[in-house]
Amino acid sequence: MAIFLTKESKVVVQGMTGSEGMKHTRRMLASGTDIVAGVNPRKAGKVIDFDDRAVPVFGSVRAAIEATGADVTVVFVPPPFAKAAVIEAVDAGIPLAVVITEGIPVHDAVVFHAYAAQRGTRVIGPNCPGTISPGQSNAGIIPADIAAKPGRVGLVSKSGTLTYQLMYELREIGFSSAVGIGGDPVVGTTHIDCLAAFEQDPDTELIVLIGEIGGDAEERAAAYIAEHITKPVVGYIAGFTAPEGKTMGHAGAIVSGSSGTAHAKKQALEAAGVRVGATPTETSRLVLARLAQPGDVAAH
Questions:
Q1: What are the tens digits of pLDDT across the range 4-43?
Q2: Could you say which of 228, 250, 263, 300 is catalytic?
């Protein structure tokens, strides 16, 4: 199994005919994603050839869904138009919207997240690499060749780069699903949402949680783990050397006083029973060591 995205998922790409949309549509198709449509009001009726797959372009998400049965959208629409694109997808009844676009104004993200939540659409992102269920489907920009093998590990990460690194380092173990939730101040799907889904997924034996400085998402995830997660969790927090009071990397990565520091997050996770690596490589070693413990993987 997998979470959020499976081989049955039918994917539409908003912004498919742009340069980024074209490039990543080709990559998603190559990794086995069932991309059934693109959306561009100015190019409705065209058919775009991607090697051995012809993908029709529709003028709206609703038209694409009605024609193809799509149940996932991947959004490559530029920042000024991203809010309208997500709201259009929500109005069309799409169950899952993966918003890759970075640089979306925070107010716009607040608006479309609230709108989606009220109407039952799950949003992953924005400013995220998307989600992949190896061997099944890939919605976003995660390179499929670093994680071609299905496996026992579930991964949730704020950082795209660290998503790729951990998937590469654990490529021989493989993943049930990996979800890059994005590092903006406001995101749709959270660490907790993914933890809950992985807990219910019978094919996920261990969960890797990657966080970073800023905010309190990791502290809230730690509290949730302590109360609700029975599977082992291994963590990594980026930003141990970041100076306090400065925004680092993602827009949400700002530290004020002791709140939001890597050390505070590490302490909260460890208090919940999570082993936290000092580096990505050490984190991967902790995963391998935990999976190697006979009969102990199922117990948190």
A1: 999 999 999 999 999 999 999 999 999 999 999 999 999 9
A2: 250
C-beta of residue 235 within 8 angstroms of C-beta of residue 211: yes
Sole residue written with tokens 């006083």: 257
Q: Is the whole model's pTM more than 0.70, yes or no?
A: yes
Burial class (CB in 10 A: 0-12, 13-18, 19+), 256: exposed
Q: What angle do CA 181, 165, 155 make, to 5 degrees?
A: 40
Contacts of 264 (CB under 8 A, 6+ apart): 219, 258
Question: Which residues of the chain register pLDDT less than 70?
Answer: 147-148, 239-259, 294-300
228 included as an active-site residue: no
State the Rg of the chain over Cα.
19
φ/ψ of 153, rounded to 5, equals: -105, 135
